[in-house]
Amino acid sequence: MPITELSSEELESFELMIPQEDFWLNDAFKELQSAYQQNKFPHGLLINAVKGFGQLKLAKAIGASLLCRVNQECHSDLKENNQTGAIEKVATDSQLNFSVACGNCKSCLLLQANTHPDFYLAERLLEKGKLKQNISINQMRELSQKLVQTSQLNGWRVAIINSIDDMNISSFNAILKTLEEPGQDTLIMLISHGMGKVPATIKSRCQVLNLNADKNRTLDWLINKNSDQINDDEISNAMKVCYGAPYASLEFIVQGYQSEYKKLFSDLDALLANQLSANELLVQHKEHMLSLIGWIANYFHQVSQSISLESASLEKAQRYGNVPQKTVMNLYEQIINLNRAQSSGSNLQLTLQLEAILIHWFELGRKIVHYSK
Ligand SMILES: [Zn+2]
Fold this sequence. Notes:
By secondary structure, the chain is α/β, with parallel strands linked by helices. It has helices at 2-6, 23-37, 55-67, 69-84, 87-96, 106-112, 137-148, 169-180, 200-203, 215-226, 232-241, 246-254, 258-272, 278-284, 289-308, 314-320, 325-341, 347-372; strands spanning 44-48, 119-122, 126-127, 130-131, 157-162, 186-192, 207-210.
């Protein structure tokens, strides 16, 4: 079972296809189909977007299509046709080579059972119930070794690394050579949540696929998913909070995070004004600990923006006017790092680190009041 060796993913059913209404993923899939038809299909594909765009879902659907026996049978026809010189037929067949996975062939069934011998998913492993902080160098070595072996079902070999954020320099180095010489009919897909974290050596060996979702179409998609429970303003706000990521916005709405999010922002303002302590804030929001870090990051990001904008409202100008932007950016960086480490550390550690950052914000407010008097 290749999946369990490399990844900690629970053995849930494997989605072979992208839901028809998830337009941004289908658009990306079509882009790859046309690359395939033009013989421009990559061996290293970097799928980039902020969290909540469904990168893994797309990568799995691409992998399933390549591995699907129905598509691969066309592939071998194509090779024979090349020898006999039947050029017209080649063009027709090549269009069939990369269609949506059939769902019924041996390969599709193996994928759905998470037992396909030519499919590898590398993710952070579980250790004593906690996710490890990184994808290890050993996982990457194991992956590289598997990809140099011949395919067990005589077709493509597909690997997904989920995600680049969880890799360190050693694990990057362990996969470099494989990315450079991936072997025939091999696809390595790397999922990324921001190009800033991708080393140039990796970037230069991959084709980059940036996922985008049109704002109006996402709005319609969210309205369809939520029927009549929510107004357009709330949907727009969810999209803003989640940087336009459709799945993340949907979760934000469905979970009813709207009011909690607003309350957090006003509490962070109250913290700066020294009307609330860091500990009180954390106690009040402890039920949303998992989302909290990302939301606080959004808060610092917005504060930083309103400091640099001349058009910031008078209210905001008064509130953040004396706050040094450099300090805000520094706190933002600290929160982002904490976000990265959050699933590997204990809850107590996390709370303490978060509290330290919030105390800094409180102290900053105290100094500002002191100097402006
Ligand atoms: Zn199939």
